[in-house]
Amino acid sequence: MIGELIYAFRVMRLPLLDAGGAPIGKIDDIVVVSGRATEAPRVLGFVASSQRRRIFVSASRIGSLDNSGARLKSWDVDLNPFHPRAGERLIGKDILDQRVGEETVSDVALGFVSGRTPGWHIAKVRLAKRSL
User: Fold this and answer.
1) Shortest CA distance to 16 belongs to which of 86, 73, 101?
2) Closest among 98, 119, 120, 99 to 109, alpha carbons compared
3) Contact 15/71 with Cβ under 8 angstroms?
4) Does the pTM exceed 0.70?
5) Within the chain, where are the H helices?
6) Which of 36, 55, 58, 129 has its CA 20 to 30 A from that of 78?
7) What pairing do the DSSP bridges indicate for beta strands 89-90 and 69-72?
8) SS3 call for 60
9) Alpha-carbon distance 96 to 11, whole Å?
10) What does the pLDDT look like over 34-63, one tens digit per residue?
11) What pLDDT was estimated at residue 131?
12) Distance CA 32, CA 11 (A)
């Protein structure tokens, strides 16, 4: 069952917070992969800017995600540069503003799914008609 939704456009402007709540960066994008045949695409993690680097933060390392930011479960962060892998898509770079028929993807809603494999999944896609 999916809980409260949070929209990607909003998430991609939130601070990345350490376990104590201090800002250590800003979320720039969200990394997703296709789900199995009956599952929605799932969030692998987040691309964040920290100390002038674009880093990857695994979704499993996020303790909470709300309007105040994405708070880490622990204090340590891997500062290695982010490099996308095959099969991964970035919501901001690859999905938002893409055309779907006569409409354009304007936002993506994420929902937390609890259960056997808990995590964030794409719950909805907001489409908008674009005029020239």
Assistant:
1) 73
2) 120
3) no
4) yes
5) 8-11
6) 36
7) unpaired
8) helix
9) 13
10) 977 788 899 999 999 998 899 999 999 999
11) 66
12) 14
